[in-house]
Write a structure and sequence with these properties.
Layout (H helix, E strand, L loop, with lengths): L2 H30 L7 H19 L2 H25 L4 H19 L25 H6 L3 H19 L1 H11 L1 H6 L4 H27 L11 H11 L4 H23 L6 H19 L3 H7 L13
Helix pairs in contact: 1-6, 1-9, 1-10, 1-11, 2-3, 2-4, 2-9, 2-10, 3-4, 3-9, 6-7, 10-12, 11-12
Length: about 300
């Protein structure tokens, strides 16, 4: 492989891993608060279809991204109202949200399938984008990729150094103890769920407005489920999540590269590579069971009511 091919592979790796990184960071915040939302796939699809329709109708990519985020947040609030407000089972509610979002997005977007739009264009930073190998990968991307870098840094700092991050972790570890100390448990959980929904909507919007600027049913291709697995196998740590997201992106691109080079490998086997590689490597990272338990939120998926 020559240097130009490697440069292009690294560039495509970051683009492909970006929606997964965004949605996984949102789910990380949600789960750190003790809430398990399995509706990522449905929220992403709703963000994708709403963002696409708004952009196609108004011609504004910015408005499309904003309403994609809003769509994801509204879907997450539906989940929160049922799972947190009514103390329903979080796993069942999340699965229902995915089914609902998948069906509703297909219904809303039925008339727009395959319609192309002008997507978000890359912006190369002068001089920095010319650095060999990493220049194009890091400094010739679109605005949402740059935003994802900032979101990663923000979430990493939030849990490592901020008081609010400590509050979220306390709520996820033991909401009863946090409530007795006067911490706003339910408000924290609602805000964490809303943040996760907004990130899922943004990730979906990125797929339909930048990565492949068109709408197609189920265009998330399981990324919501991969994000859920990513958070667990990364032991709820942002630094491992970014590694797993870009690993998924790299495996996806190598799939296309291997086919392009003409190697006699089954296309079905190559298509499986991103999912298998992500799970396999992150399982290896998480092989230390005791260390994994140390990072697992103790109250993850368990209902809480301030009067119980």
């Amino acid at each position: 492989m020559d240097i130009d091919l490697i440069t292009n592979v690294l560039y495509a790796m970051v683009r492909t891993g970006t929606p997964l990184l965004i949605v996984a960071l949102g789910e990380l915040v949600c789960e750190r608060s003790g809430v398990l939302n399995l509706g990522q796939e449905g929220m992403m699809l709703m963000g994708a279809v709403v963002g696409f329709i708004v952009t196609l109708t108004t011609g504004s990519l910015l408005l499309g991204f904003i309403l994609a985020i809003v769509a994801g947040m509204l879907m997450s609030m539906l989940f929160a109202a049922i799972a947190l407000g009514l103390n329903a089972n979080q796993v069942a509610t999340g699965l229902a949200l995915t089914i609902f979002g998948t069906g509703l997005s297909a219904f809303i977007g039925a008339a727009y399938v395959g319609t192309p739009i002008t997507g978000l264009e890359p912006i190369a930073i002068p001089y920095l984008s010319e650095i060999p190998l990493i220049g194009k990968m890091l400094f010739a991307q679109d605005l949402v990729v740059y935003l994802s870098f900032g979101l990663f840094g923000l979430v990493f700092w939030f849990f490592k150094s901020s008081r609010l991050g400590l509050t979220v972790k306390a709520v996820g570890e033991n909401p009863h103890a946090a409530n007795s100390l006067g911490l706003p448990v339910m408000r924290t959980r609602y805000l964490a769920v809303a943040f996760g929904g907004g990130m899922a909507g943004l990730a979906g919007g990125y797929l339909s407005l930048a990565y492949t600027p068109l709408w197609a049913e189920n265009m998330t291709a399981g990324r919501g489920w991969i994000a859920l697995a990513l958070v667990v196998f990364a032991t709820w740590r942002a630094d491992r999540i970014i590694f797993g997201a870009y690993l998924f992106g790299l495996a996806s691109i190598l799939n296309l590269v291997v086919q392009g080079l003409g190697y006699p490998v089954s296309p079905n086997l190559l298509a499986m590579m991103p999912y298998a590689a992500t799970v396999l490597v992150l399982v290896m990272i998480s092989s230390n069971v005791m260390k994994s338990k140390m990072y697992t939120p103790m109250w993850l998926g368990k209902p809480f009511h301030p009067h119980t």
